[in-house]
């Protein structure tokens, strides 16, 4: 950045040569601070990766700039096999399009490119992208490095990875095909002008469970190039009132910033010899209510239509990557691509209790209780991972909606209660605390095998767990939905059903929420 200053332009009514020099000095310092902030940094960082496939593909993803424009300065491709060499038969073509397929920028990464933090880049003439959604893609060839999947990704604040995209063939074309699996192809990368400081904790839109005093310890961690600064500080601004809730405090290793329930903007500044050298911001972080949701299809994006959270304070977490997003359907990672009750429930609770609300959804369609029962239940590791991501006392409750598959299978009340009891017991052991559970009364399925007697047995098993296992409360009853016109098909909930399901959970949580004490003075 170059700054040109004519002292006479700023000398009006000063009557002092010293004042001219002072003004110049102030402007130069301000310009230096801006220059320090505007450095070229990766928009997304891939932490690890595995080779999954090779061939002639355009691989990429849709991403969103959530709340501010960004200036793209470089395009690139990840070093899939981590050998520091771009193992492709020809330079790699990379492009960014808008979501209609209009190409906005493109470049070729030369085969001689040097690996930089696990990727190869080529600089481009800077291009500003406004807030919104875009698609990036790169060509990979048979016999080349291959494509990546199952990737933990860290993104700059304001950058959100949305979904995998691909297209067959070796020509650079707009990748329209969506990869349905939760882990999606990833290859191209890009850099933007941003802060030299990278906040690794907390994640953008993360929600932390308030304790009985209405506060939470929000983990804070920042990485910054060696020698750039000698001190990093953080402060918390209430997004609603704009008031400073926590003034500048030095960031230390393992730090947790204690905040009352609320919706915050965290501002970071790095200083050297008393001067600010770079700043960065996490725009949205919440202290409020966090829920882990679990079960089969009606907990897992199989309803319709998709629902949108109206309150900005509702968030959902991808437990595989640890990244958060606004709480709209489909909920990340949970099976299905349709609607759920969680966005609506988030709105209800945010309005009722005036706090942010978060969800970690792990439900899988068509699963039986046995598929969630450790140690052999294939789905249980999802629940374990979600609870450990939330941390000790890190969520309000696990919300369980499951039973339809067991009505088809003819699971007895005794066996259902035994298996669900084992799920709850192991979840508490793995979570490291006695996490509360809400258990819905759910058994209806139209299959002929799911007789009324079998459905009643499943409900009896659920009721036995509610009555005999400590820390378990009754969730909503949804078996009557098919008689009330609340189904989109023969088993999954429509808009009315999703709303009733959300309201049922919000009401079922009332006794548990009433244990919330007043914040400490």
Could you walk me through the main structural features you see in this protein, from its secondary elements to its overall organization?
By secondary structure, this protein is of the alpha+beta class. It has 4 domains: 7-37; 41-194, Jelly Rolls (Sandwich); 198-285, Immunoglobulin-like (Sandwich), CATH 2.60.40; 288-513, SGNH hydrolase (Rossmann fold, 3-Layer(aba) Sandwich), CATH 3.40.50.1110. It is built from 8 helices and 29 strands. The strands form 7 sheets. Strands 16, 19, 20, 22, 23, 24, 25, 26, 27, 28 and 29 form an 11-stranded mixed sheet that branches. Strand 12 (159-168) and strand 13 (177-178) form a beta hairpin. Helix 2 (342-353) packs across helix 7. The longest helix is centred in the N-terminal third of the chain and has 21 residues, at 17-37. The relative contact order is 0.10. Residues 1-37 and 517-521 have low confidence and may be disordered.
Descriptive tags:
36% strand; Immunoglobulin-like; 6-stranded antiparallel β-sheet; 4 domains; disordered N terminus; 11-stranded mixed β-sheet; alpha+beta; 521 residues; Jelly Rolls; 20% helix; disordered C terminus
